[in-house]
Amino acid sequence: MVQKIGGFGINKIHKLDCLEGMRKLPDKSVDLAFIDPPYNVGKDYGIYKDNLSDRDYIELMKNVINEFRRITKRGFGIYLDWKQFQRYWQLVPEAEPIIIFKRSSGVIYSPLKIVQHHHVILTTAKSLKSQCRSLWDDIRVMGEGYLFNEKRFGHPAQTSLKATKRFIQNFSEEDEVVLDCFAGCGTTAIACKEIGRNFIGFELNPEYIKTANKRLTQDTLNIYNPPPTNSKGRTAEIIK
Ligand SMILES: C[S@@+](CC[C@H](N)C(=O)[O-])C[C@H]1O[C@@H](n2cnc3c(N)ncnc32)[C@H](O)[C@@H]1O
Fold first, then answer.
1. Does 234 score more than 80 pLDDT?
2. Is the CB of 57 under 6 A from ligand 1?
3. At 102, is the pLDDT very low, low, confident or very high (cuts 50, 70, 90)?
4. Burial level of 169, CB count in 10 A (0-12/13-18/19+)?
5. For residue 229, is pLDDT > 50?
6. How far apart are CA 33 and CA 65, in angstroms?
7. Taking the CA of residue 58 as centre, how many other CA atoms within 13 Å lie in the half-sphere pointing to its CB?
8. Distance 186 CA to ligand 1 centre (A)
9. 68 versus 140: which is more confidently predicted?
10. Centre of ligand 1 from the C-alpha of residue 231, in Å
11. CB atoms within 10 A of CB 238
12. Ligand 1 atom 3: residue of nearest CA
């Protein structure tokens, strides 16, 4: 098994700008990429303020997507909310959507007063299962407050581990290398560790990398909020 790709150690999150890192990776050098990108909505990621001009943001994402096309063997998945999904599909017309159904109690309307109850993974990778359903309706996502029962790690936009794991499991094989160039507090890294994949991550904020490394070494500890419990003391997971 290779220990380095393009000079980067595998199974590490490197403190580096996503494009700077990816431009050093050779063609077809990682198997799959999975990202939950910043949405350019002014979220405070510490070092990164998520407030580029619209033009610069689209330019950045076009470059990220082109790098994915160059460096991945199987393709890539992009985790999006319903609003981002519309513009990203124009950037990646070859992708297909997997809908993650949100049963959230909070009501978020589109401009036409349609209640939006979904997130989307746009994927260019081909499912390795004989069938991969396009609707995942058993996953709780961040933002669902009480109902989101995964551990939280003090990151403002942590991705669902369950969704991340399922994507990687369906679209890659054991021991393959998965890239997350917006690694945050390491959800993709944890998913890879738990299901026997290798990973490479890039992230700008060293505090998130520290948290990710803590998660990777102590992932059985709930170091921030414990999952919510109901009156009977049971966790609030809805089991399907
Ligand atoms: C939506 S979050 C990713 C969350 C991650 N999947 C997790 O569960 O922790 C986006 C991340 O991208 C990072 N980021 C933003 N611009 C970046 C860049 N140019 N290069 C690398 N990381 C960047 C932010 O600091 C933030 O942690």
1. no
2. no
3. confident
4. middle
5. no
6. 10
7. 11
8. 10
9. 68
10. 36
11. 9
12. 184
* Atom number, ligand 1, closest to the C-alpha of residue 202: 21
Helix (H) or strand (E) holding 116: none
| Residue whose CA lies nearest to ligand 1 atom number 22 | 203
81 CB within 6 A, ligand 1: no
DSSP for 140-176 reads --TT-GGG--S---S-TTPPPHHHHHHHHHHH--TT-
pLDDT attached to residue 110: 81
Helix 161-171 vs helix 187-195: crossing angle, to nearest 10: 50
The CATH number that domain 4-217 falls under is: 3.40.50.150
pLDDT in tens, 126-135: 999 999 999 9
> pLDDT-based confidence at 106, cuts 50/70/90?
low
For ligand 1, what atom is nearest to the CA of residue 153? 9
Ligand 1 centre and the CA of 79: distance in Å? 12
182 lines ligand 1 (CB under 6 A): yes
157 lines ligand 1 (CB under 6 A): yes
Atom 27 in ligand 1: which residue has the minimum CA distance?
A: 184
Beta strands in the chain, from DSSP E residues, in sequence order: 4-5, 8-9, 12-15, 30-35, 72-81, 96-101, 118-123, 135-136, 177-180, 198-203
Model confidence pLDDT, tens digit, residues 147-170: 566 788 889 999 999 999 999 999
